[in-house]
C-alpha cells in the first residue's frame, strides 16, 4: 500500500511481514496488498483506535 492505494479497514484481516521493508495486508476477501513499513505503522494505529486485534 502506498499513497495511490487504499484499503477498506473493515476488510483488513491481518498484516504479515514480507521482507525487512514491506508487509502484506491480507484482506477478508483473500486478496493481498503490499504495505510499506511506513504505512504498516499507520494501519496498526488505525486498527488499535478502532479496537481491532492485530
Task: Please tell me about this protein's structure.
One of its GO terms (biological process) is phosphorelay signal transduction system. GO terms for molecular function: DNA binding. It holds the Pfam family LytTR. InterPro entries: LytTR_DNA-bd_dom (IPR007492). Keywords: Two-component regulatory system. The chain is of the alpha+beta class. It has one domain (11-48). It contains 1 helix and 3 strands; from the N terminus they run βββα. The chain has a 3-stranded antiparallel beta sheet with strand order 1-2-3. The longest helix has 13 residues, at 37-49.
Set down the secondary structure blueprint.
Blueprint: E1 12-17, E2 22-27, E3 32-36, H1 37-49
Antiparallel strand pairs: 1-2, 2-3
Organism: Paraglaciecola psychrophila 170
Protein name: Response regulator receiver protein
GO molecular function, one term: DNA binding
The oligomeric state is single chain
Measured by DSSP, the beta-strand proportion falls in: 25-35%
Number of domains: 1
> What is the mean predicted local confidence, pLDDT?
78
The separation of the N and C termini measures 17 Å
| Rg, nearest Å | 10 Å
Provide the helix percentage.
10-25%
Element order: H for helix, E for strand? EEEH
The strands making up the biggest β-sheet line up spatially as 1-2-3
Give the CA-based shape: globular
Quick one: biggest sheet?
A: 3 strands, antiparallel
Output the number of helix runs: 1
Kindly name the structural category.
alpha+beta
Low-confidence spans? none
The number of distinct β-strands equals 3
Keywords: Two-component regulatory system
GO molecular function: DNA binding
Domain HTH LytTR-type: 1-49
Organism: Paraglaciecola psychrophila 170
